[in-house]
Amino acid sequence: MNPVILFDGECNFCDSSVQFIIKRDPQGLFHYASLQSEAGQELLKKYDVPADIDSMVLIEKDKAYYKSSAALRICRRLQGAWKLLYGFIIVPSFIRNFFYDFIARNRYKWFGKKEESCMLPSPSVRKRFL
């Protein structure tokens, strides 16, 4: 199973992050689902992710990662120098997540929420969304 990234489908920053990942994942390794979607909710339940999670979630090799661990594990698979960010995995998670949580708490204020319109991905990208 390909790694799946679950993201907040209402968040502009999260949507931009998904677009960023797609551009740096030319092999199409990652698949995607919004946290609010039926597929997203099923995966959250299947992997016992806490119901109040306010984070991007990565499901990889039958395990769920969230917050900074998910972000760094995603970076590790991206094309280019982004892989180097994975080195921050040695920083204790409580320190990494302090910064992650600060951005997560403020993401709607700083970047806004999505309106009704969404980007229409190309057919090759669209098939990667669950």
TrEMBL record:
Assigned keywords, A-Z: Membrane, Transmembrane, Transmembrane helix
Q: Name one GO molecular function term.
A: protein-disulfide reductase activity
Q: Which InterPro entries does this chain map to?
A: DCC1-like, DCC_oxidoreductase
What domain of life does the native source organism fall in?
A: Bacteria
State which residue ranges cross the membrane.
84-104
Pfam families assigned to the protein according to its UniProt record, in alphabetical order: DCC1-like
Name of the protein: Thiol-disulfide oxidoreductase DCC family protein
Organism annotation: Peribacillus castrilensis
